[in-house]
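debug: dumping io for the single-chain case to check the tokenizer round-trip. Nothing else runs in this session.
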Amino acid sequence: MLSMSCISRSSRASCTREACWHPARPFFVGQAPKRLQSWLTDNESLTKKLICHCAGQFRVRVQREYWQRPLPSEAAQLGLARGSITFIREVHLTCDEQRWVFARTIIPLKTLRGALPQLTQLGTQPLGAVLFANRSVTRGALQVAQIKSLHYMYNEATLGSTQTSALWGRRSLFFLHGAPLLVNELFLDTL
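debug: decoded output
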């Protein structure tokens, strides 16, 4: 059901534009820096964990919210037809205005129509607070990837920062009454 890396029907060009995602198994997670391994594999709310680790003010800084085609591997994860338009939300999760995490959420139209149409109007409210408060939400398996400077999400995550090293990220599907959305979370060096 879920693809485990770059989707087979995508070209090599899109695999260079996107990171190759792998199941969050010890072999793949073990390649990440030790300080990030528990962050990559924790199934609980990332928002809640960040708030617990932030001694200052936690904040969601919205970068962009827009309608567009997702990346090929994102469309494959969501089971979308090629060319489907989705709602995309990109935010930085910050502690005392320092960016800790870049999150990119992909929400198909069918999810917005059925489950939670207000997901397009979260503003600075954390998505995790909405998802983990809803008992009908289930989470799929975690995937991990190393995101390098040639990947699309790296550029979005590090825009305006001094980050030069590769990032590590995770992603998973969430299901609201069976309707999917995909959440990508990239961990910045400042975490």
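debug: round-trip ok. The CA atoms of residues 130 and 179 lie 15 Å apart.
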